[in-house]
Design a protein that fits this description.
Number of helices: 4
Number of strands: 6
Radius of gyration: 26 Å
Structural class: alpha+beta
Strand content: 25-35%
Helix content: 25-40%
Largest sheet: 4 strands, mixed
Distance between the termini: 86 Å
Oligomer: single chain
């Protein structure tokens, strides 16, 4: 019985031996944030960046105050999103992508003299999920 069990373990080890290196490579590749390509026997790390900003041009061409406020907000939002990617101390999550920033807006006219812009900001920087926040400017 012991001999039969030893033979079975040896046969199993011989059969699994070619599989183990690939599995170990897949695991190592996944830990680096990549995808294992079995056809090429390569670990592929991809990071892409998407920035999609909708700009309320119809309001800013007629009102300098609105233009200044919107430009400052968009500049700050874009800079805050990109800053960690260009700082050398921040580990860019390879393969987590696409990293994304999306800003959309809605216009609310409360009266002839009061206008609000609600910005919906979505960003994904490689974590478990993206984040959605809101920013409102009232004029």
């Amino acid at each position: 019985m012991r001999t039969l069990r030893r033979i079975a373990l040896v046969v199993l080890a011989v059969l699994l031996l070619p599989v183990l290196p690939t599995s170990a490579q897949e695991d190592a590749c996944f830990q680096k944030g990549g995808t294992w390509n079995p056809d090429e026997q390569r670990c592929i790390l991809l990071t892409s960046l998407e920035i999609d900003i909708h700009y309320p041009l119809e309001l800013t061409t007629e009102h300098a105050v609105i233009e200044q406020a919107v430009d400052a907000f968009i500049h700050d939002a874009r800079s805050a999103f990109l800053a960690p990617l260009v700082e050398s101390s921040f580990p860019v999550p390879i393969g987590a992508g696409p990293l994304a920033l999306s800003i959309d807006y809605e216009t609310f006219n409360f009266s002839e003299d009061v206008l609000s812009l609600k910005f919906t900001i979505y960003d994904y920087t490689g974590g478990a999920h993206g984040n959605t926040t809101f920013r409102t400017l009232t004029f």
